[in-house]
Recover the amino acids of this structure.
């Protein structure tokens, strides 16, 4: 979008509903003060289905991919999580997720940003129930996942129509309910970026410019993808300072390139804590880092002066990562990672900034 059109868009009157959101965070139970959030996980899933990303296993493991999750096949599932069909149905585990959130709250957690969007079975009713049952603040995501999940109807929408959808999900409610989203995203991007994804990104920027809302992006699995996405958002009038780039742990692994990206000004999210894979099924060229390497990357960003833009999470989206199935659960960062970060020289004050202050600043509507 041309800069003069962007300025005209930004100068247009805010919708009257925005007066209730300015300076606040919108949860599935309504707007709250930012200070109410506490320690916040900025990229999780609590109810979703990931059938779109099923990876057919080798013929010798075809039977294993259809079996229930058991102790004797759990290791294979842990190393091939996207080749086991039941493992991709997180939405079946509502009670287990409720127990997880209670455990997270007992460990000192206060809020979760739920990143499930259209295309991967968003369930805002389930999110409201979980928030009511656990007392954890839950922020729901508006928008669309990657191109492979876009319906023909979505592909046919113009940028202006997509913008209207995003704005409506925040101001009025999502999926035929009055339950309102509090963030746009995770907006799914592939590599290379597709035409439909580009339209969604442009609509995201336009909606953000009008609402002053937070945005979170799922980048394609290539080191150049985050750079391209930020450029598209900027050209369309988006606010990079209110935008999170997710999955940097599996996307920008080179230190020099990471620091180059950090200079662009968005939030920098390390959100795969607890994921340790020998072979990353979605891109075998990537050696998935372990948690110790993630901690070193966070320490690097802090030491380089970017501590006020770092965010942490787990991106739990499969069953095997729940405690019910021997996984680390939503409390892993608070119970295991924070103590290790303290041992590695990241100050408690810095961790409070990363887990409390940065999420508050990002999630607060302008």
């Amino acid at each position: 979008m041309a800069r003069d059109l962007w300025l005209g868009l930004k100068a247009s009157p805010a919708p009257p509903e925005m007066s209730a959101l300015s300076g606040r965070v919108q949860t599935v139970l309504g707007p709250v003060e930012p200070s109410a959030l506490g320690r916040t996980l900025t990229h999780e899933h609590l109810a979703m289905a990931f059938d779109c990303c099923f990876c057919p296993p080798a013929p010798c493991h075809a039977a294993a991919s259809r079996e229930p999750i058991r102790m004797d096949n759990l290791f294979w599932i842990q190393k091939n999580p996207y080749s086991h069909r039941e493992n991709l149905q997180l939405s079946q585990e509502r009670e287990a997720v409720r127990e997880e959130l209670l455990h997270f709250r007992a460990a000192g957690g206060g809020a979760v940003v739920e990143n499930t969007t259209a295309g991967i079975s968003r369930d805002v009713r389930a999110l409201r129930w979980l928030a009511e049952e656990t007392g954890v603040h839950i922020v729901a995501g508006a928008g669309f996942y990657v191109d492979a999940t876009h319906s023909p109807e979505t592909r046919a929408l113009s940028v202006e129509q997509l913008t209207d959808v995003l704005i409506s999900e925040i101001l009025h409610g999502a999926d035929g309910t009055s339950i309102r989203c509090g963030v746009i995203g995770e907006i799914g991007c592939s590599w290379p970026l597709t035409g439909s994804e580009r339209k969604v990104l442009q609509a995201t920027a336009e909606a953000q410019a009008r609402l002053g809302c937070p945005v979170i992006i799922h980048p394609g699995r290539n080191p150049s993808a985050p750079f391209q996405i930020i450029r598209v958002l900027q050209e369309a009038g988006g606010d990079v300072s209110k935008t999170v780039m997710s999955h940097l742990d599996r996307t920008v692994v080179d230190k020099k390139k990471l620091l180059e990206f950090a200079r662009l000004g968005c939030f920098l999210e390390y959100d795969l804590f607890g994921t340790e894979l020998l072979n990353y099924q979605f891109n075998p060229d990537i050696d998935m880092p372990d948690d110790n390497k993630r901690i070193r990357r966070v320490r690097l960003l802090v030491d380089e002066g970017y501590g006020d833009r770092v965010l942490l999470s787990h991106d739990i989206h499969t069953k095997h990562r729940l405690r019910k199935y021997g996984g680390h659960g939503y409390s892993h960062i608070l119970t295991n990672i924070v103590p290790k970060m303290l041992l590695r020289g990241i100050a408690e004050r810095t961790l409070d900034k990363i887990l409390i202050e940065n999420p508050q600043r990002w999630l607060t509507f302008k």
